[in-house]
Each structure stands twice: as structure tokens, then as C-alpha cells.
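Note to self: keep these together.
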Amino acid sequence: MISRRGFVQSGIAAASSSFLIKSARASTNRERLLDDVQRRAVRYFYYEADPYTGLVKDRARNSYEEDRRIVASIAATGFGLSALATGDRRGYIPRSVALERVERTLEHLARMETQQGFYYHFIDMRTGDRAWNCEISSVDTSWLLCGLIHARAHFDTSKIDRLANEILDRVNWKWMLNESDTLSHGWTPESGFLPYRWDSYSELMAMYLLALGSKTNPIPARSWDAWRRPTRTYAGLKWIDSDTPLFTHQYSHAFFDFRQRRDKYANYFQNSRLATEAHRIHCVSLAKQFPWYSNSLWGVTASDSRIGYSPWGGFDSRPAYDGTVVPCAAAGSLPFLPEPCMTVLETTFDKFGSRVWGRYGFSDAFHPHANWTSPDVIGIDLGISLLMAENYRTGSVWDAMMSTDEAKRGMQAASLA
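Structure:
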């Protein structure tokens, strides 16, 4: 087991990490745990990025063994830009080092191949070239742009402003509509537009707000109303839900502050709070099947599993839940249910210790009964944990993002202003 008293001393404890700054001792055990979760996530986004391109690996080992994988994720790169801003704000990393990495990343992004300003989902971290014949992705480009906007607002330098605006202004959101009111999932050079649309509630809100708020190629306001908002009822709770994994209720909230805003359909922050509470109750209801599920240990979302990566987490999830626990389900929901989510993180750390806790914090997923733990962390799962912990603690990501013209225009167009 790991002593929680060792957080501050061991948080960035390796010779290769010598320049990352240790934070001051936090005042409570919970703050120490969150501080170390965040610090280790920042560590991932610095050390698992290419030092010349700034592109961040899709995943890496959570141990100190060398990880030779070279495939980056454009979404993880966006979370990485936010991580550099958060790391600078918290004093985990020297400002000059963070600033240099952000500038290098934006310089490379400005030169990379795009289609109408949209990026390939997976790329070679060394070159930025397309990997695995993947798609040009509208939603993954959106997480890149969110991180870029956050970093631009935080660092506020002329060079970063110029590069960020160049990247933002060339994104042709109207093209991604592909003659409809809803955005396409993406495009490939082999087949053109994918046959899927962002037409039902999911993680799509941030993407639509960016598209509505674009300075150069905004989509019409009616597109906000064009996607469906089906409802679900469970345990006396009713909320908008397309039976998607829990992360779909988290990602847009990492960047956009919906707390005091509503449109004619919902207050989306309250909606995610209800969805998280229903998910917690649902997990606890499975305790007869999985006795380790309880009020202090719950949470499933798209993650690694014993049979590979699994998009589970909805109520009608296929494959069905198998008793796996996914730490970012709770960490990414901290602003919605602070006490229950914090209890899960404490229980996971205290009960399972080094079995699930490594160089970059909690491993992506683990199965308490089967004695299985993913050897990896996944960039976007660390990213949502880092940013939602920061929003829970200070709201600084929300504050930076909501100060921008892009967010203001998007919110106004969606009648959320």
C-alpha cells in the first residue's frame, strides 16, 4: 500500500522528472489526493508527448518501463494543451517550460495536414502523419480546439494568440455539416463523409458551441435544436440521455460552464448531475452480482477491460458490465457529485494502492475480483480527470474558457447566454 503522507514527496519522483515542481503541502488528505492525481496527469501530458511536435500519445504504460508506442491522439493533444495551462497555474511545471511546449505544439499543428481545418483522429507523434487509416474527426478536432482556446486564454501571449487564431479560423464547420443541420462524425479521403451524424445527445455540446461560435465559418443557430434529446427515467430520476457511456455527460463540461445556464430544453449541468447520480445508483444495484460495487466503489465508462477496449457505461450497455471499475468515471464527475465521487477515489487509493496507482496516477481500469488491472493509462481519460478536478477545486478552466469570444458567441447562438 502507499502512504497518503507520501503524496507530496513522491508525486513527481524520478530523475527524468526533475524539473517538474512539487506543490506545497495541501491542507487535507483529500486535497493531497487530488493534487497528486492532477500532478501525475500533467506529468503524462508532458513526458508522453513528442518534445518536438508536442503531439500526445493516445496511451502509455502506467509503470516506469519504456513505452515505445508512437501513435498520438489529436484529442489527447488538446487535453495536453489544457494540462500545460493547468500545470503552470498550479506550479507543477515552470512557466517557461510550459510556454515553450505550447508554442512548439501550435507551430506543428499549424503545419499539419488537415481537411478544411479538421485533423485526423490518430497521428504519428513524431511527424503528425495519419495513423491506422483513421478518419478526419469532427469531435476529436473539437477537443483539440477546446484545449487550444484554454491555453490561449491562460498564457495570453502574442505568438500563441496568432498561432491559435490561425488554427481556429481555418476550421470550416459549414463543410462538416455536409448539407444538413447536424454535423458529420468525420471524413476519409477514401470514402468521403462518414455515414454517421452527431444527431442525438452525447458529448457533442462543446463541438456545436465551437461551431456556432466560429468567427470565420459558423453554422446556423438552428443546428443547436437539430440534435435529439431523448429522456430516460430511473430510480425516480429523469434526464436527457441517449444511453451512452458516462463520459458523454462529462466532456463538454470540462471546458464550458453550464452551471447557471439553460436553454429551452434543460440545464445541462443539472442534467449531467442527474445522469451521474442515476449511474451511481445503477452500479450499486449490481452489488449482488459484483459484491465490491458499493456507495464507496462504483463507476464505469468507456475504458480498457479484460477483453480489450470497451464502450460500456450506458444502462443498456453492450457488452454488459462485468464488475470492472473505471476511476475516471468518478474523477470526471467530481463537479457533479463531489462527495460520492471523492469517496470513490479515496477508496480506490486506500484499498487497492499500488495495484492501481502508478507513474501517472490511477490506471485506466481494474477488476477487483479478477485481479486484473490495465497496464495503461489513456490520455483522454487522464485529461477529463485532470480538468474536472481543477474545475471542482477552482473553476479555473471554466473561467478561462468562458472569457473567450468563441465561448460567448457559441453560448449566445445556442440561447444559453
